[in-house]
Specification:
single chain, 312 residues, Rossmann fold, five-stranded mixed barrel, 9 strands, binds the ligand CSC[C@H]1O[C@H](OP(=O)(O)O)[C@H](O)[C@@H]1O, cytoplasm, Purine_phosphorylase-2_CS, Nucleoside_phosphorylase_sf, Nucleoside_phosphorylase_d
Length: 312
Amino acid sequence: MASESGDNVLVGVIGGSGLYHLDNLTLVKHVNPETPWGFPSSPIAICALPSGVQVAFLARHGIGHTIAPSAVPSRANIAALKSLGVRAVLAFSAVGSLREEIAPGDFALPTQIIDRTKGVRPASFFEGTSVVAHAAFGDPFALRLVRWLETRVRRVLEEEAAAHGGGAGPALHTDKCIVCMEGPQFSTRAESQMYRAWGGDVINMSVLPEAKLAREAELSYALIATATDYDSWRPHEASVTAAEVFKTLQTNASISRHVAATILEEMHAAVEDGDILTEEAGSMQYSIMPRSAEQREEDRKKLKYVLPQYFS
Ligand SMILES: CSC[C@H]1O[C@H](OP(=O)(O)O)[C@H](O)[C@@H]1O
Ligand SMILES: Nc1ncnc2[nH]cnc12
């Protein structure tokens, strides 16, 4: 797909709470594409890695963290990244831990999601159009990208531990299930315990509809979850507060920047090389219901923005 920017920006990074910029990058320019679903959360920073390779960085809640989780314009965010030519998205998120072994400061790579959003977030590019599509979402993250990330993120966490005296350092937890709640209030103790009983391992307010929209846009999407707290399930401990989250947010963000600075070059190369990290390309081919006479031309035009190969 020819990108709107004309640049070869294949990798997009979405920063969550505490992560409003990346390290070791030279800002090339800011772009703020108006998509058929409005403007992204903030202007997108197109940044050059030391090799000159460019990546796109978007702050999910805006640079000044002014957008609440339920109000994040996820359709515009994903559509804007796609319009720049992005094919794989690395998203970061601050999460609560629902498991004793996932300590604040640890990192997790989820492979499953439980949806506890309340239907107030627009969750499909097809919503409100005359085109019906049912994307496959059994594996909500791009598994090849997740597996690719495992070894690389683990290595960075080991480097972090070595640089800070060789102690245990943050652990990486793989194959975890993330609960996405509506918020903005945190969970009750009863809810937190229920999520554990359901098999949830970590919890946030942001992975949906972001992951669904990435799938609809045929972008490979993975989430690096960074634990900040133990949510509200521990019977004899205080339940989570924003103050508790803030305690680990900066350290987690700084390690997240180290992860990004270490892997982005290689990730760009892997995406460019072909199908290793672009497994979602073509995945919507059989998800869109066959064209009928009732499909409105204006809707096809809108959908062309994210899926040009099906709506030319
Ligand atoms: C600041 S606590 C709750 C807030 O933090 C997470 O944001 P993000 O996923 O963007 O890092 C969580 O999802 C909530 O939105
Ligand atoms: N306990 C929690 N619940 C939901 N989102 C979070 N983000 C960070 N901690 C969280």
